[in-house]
Write a structure and sequence with these properties.
GO terms for molecular function: dGTPase activity. This protein has 23 helices and 9 strands. It is an alpha+beta fold and about 475 residues long. The strands form 3 sheets. It has a 4-stranded mixed beta sheet. Strands 5-9-6 form a 3-stranded antiparallel beta sheet, with helices on both faces. Strands 1-2 form a two-stranded antiparallel ribbon.
């Protein structure tokens, strides 16, 4: 086995014999140096202790209240493991990557979620111009005096170097392989959150892949500057892909979780429309929410939603049902998959969120026929796969080995029917369904058949404009 050069062995985070560690579930020690601990103790990282990893999933799985802080430590631990492995097995990589690049990668792994705000993923799925991306908030946290000082004095890094690495399209000269380790088809983020989310939710689905064997099988496709696997990791990778598929099906896109998600999305959208959008415009609105969410925790966000909704009568019950002391989630009355109802799925999936709001309002009017008290527009919610698709699975598997620079690779999708079926062909279309939810206090008043509801939904979708945002 190749041994990396002296400068890389001198990187204390990779020495493997650190005296200090932080204990996280399930019975794992995260070795930390003094400069790692300095970052961990900043207010920006400590804030992540008050932001749950799964947000609304806790409405269904009460144990799923673990935090982004815990997940961040888990990802950092895996980052160190993967680096030690790659530097040990690939002499070409070890001779070319610099300790500066490795430091950027390690800090990015530790702080990759620092820009997250409460419930940001379902709100980012709205695709609205005034909702910031969590990556865009990362630079503000990394530039805070406490973090900036540590990065500069103890790591020799500038905040923009880390934030660029965390962006969707990094422009720095850091090795694309390192970017692939943190954000790729098989990355340390997924390796940690699948197992951690499964553990805390109390389900087995995300823990059935061998992360240790998977890490030992990682190699580098130097022609494409990307992470790949050896044949020994094929089964472990297939099981990770299957774990992700089932976790989306049974946890992340569980119908009750999606009810809460639809309520949250409509609540934020309607509050913004009612209070700010008309007079401020998208740019000013984005700045307002950005400054607010930059510092908020889960509980502070919930209080904000409850306070804002009190001034808007039609939204009060929506906010209280989601964030109040009595849980009153909307009831699922129908769901439509790509396989069983392709017409409805195609009409509503990957459409701009204002289109879903418009369709839901029209459906509410149709369902109100014959009712003494018409349904409010907010009494009917539509949930559909968002505009942004899941990243397609592009990863190579080594077919024949020579030196590390002349190995032959093929797309894993060509070698594995499991990966081809679950990670590409079926993911967005089959896991993510279109659903109709109705307010719990109105659902018993409405009379419809499965066929009549489908017809009404198709009619509503057909009559709606599809203009974006």
């Amino acid at each position: 086995m190749h041994q990396p050069g002296p400068s890389l062995l001198d990187l204390p985070e990779l020495s493997g014999n650190l005296a200090n560690s932080i204990r996280i579930p399930p019975e794992l020690d995260v070795p930390v140096t003094s400069r790692v601990m300095a970052l961990v103790e900043t207010p920006q990282m400590q804030r992540l202790k008050r932001i749950t990893q799964l947000g609304l999933v806790g409405h269904v799985y009460p144990g799923a209240t673990h935090t982004r802080f815990e997940h961040s430590l888990g990802v950092y631990r895996l980052a160190c493991e993967v680096l030690r492995h790659l530097l040990g097995v690939d002499s070409h990589f070890a001779s070319r990557v610099t300790d500066h690049e490795l430091k950027i990668f390690l800090v990015a792994a530790l702080m990759h979620d620092v820009g997250h705000w409460p419930y940001c993923h379902p709100l980012e799925d709205l695709g609205l111009p005034w909702i910031p991306k969590h990556e865009s908030l990362a630079l503000a946290h990394l530039s805070a005096p406490e973090v900036h000082s540590i990065l500069q004095s103890q790591w020799g890094l500038a905040p923009h170097e880390v934030s660029d690495f965390l962006s969707e399209q990094p422009t720095s000269g850091v090795s694309p392989v390192l970017y692939n380790v943190l954000n790729g088809p098989v990355d340390i983020d997924k390796m940690d959150y699948l197992q951690r989310d499964s553990l805390h939710a109390g389900v087995p689905y995300g823990r059935n892949f061998d992360s240790g064997r998977l890490i030992k099988s990682l190699c580098i496709n130097h022609d494409e500057q990307s992470l790949a696997i050896t044949p020994k990791g094929k089964t472990a990778t297939e099981l990770l892909v299957f774990a992700r598929y089932v976790m989306f099906s049974e946890v992340y896109w569980h119908h009750t979780v999606r009810s809460a998600t639809a309520m949250l999305q409509r609540l934020v959208y309607s509050i913004a429309q009612a209070t700010n959008a008309a007079e401020l415009g998208a740019e000013a609105l984005a700045n307002n929410w950005r400054e607010l969410w930059l510092q908020q925790t889960d509980s502070e966000f919930a209080e904000q939603m409850l306070e804002c909704s009190r001034r808007i009568p039609d939204l009060a019950s929506l906010a209280c049902g989601l964030f109040g002391v009595d849980r009153r989630l909307y009831k699922r009355v129908a769901q439509y998959s790509h396989a069983e109802n392709p017409q409805i799925h195609a009409a509503l999936a990957q459409r701009p969120y204002p289109h879903l709001v418009q369709c839901a309002a029209k459906l509410a009017k149709q369902l109100s026929r014959g009712l003494a008290r018409p349904l409010l527009a907010t009494d009917v919610l539509l949930d559909a796969p968002p505009v942004k698709l899941e990243v397609q699975f592009r990863m190579g598997i080594r077919l024949a080995s020579g030196t590390t620079t002349d190995a032959v690779f093929a797309p894993l999708t060509q070698q594995s029917p499991v990966v081809r079926a679950l990670a590409t062909d079926q993911f967005d279309s089959f896991v993510k369904q279109v659903r109709v939810f109705i307010a719990p206090d109105r659902v018993q008043e409405i009379s419809f058949t499965e066929e009549s509801l489908a017809d009404s939904l198709i009619a509503a979708a057909s009559s709606c404009s599809t203009s974006p945002h």
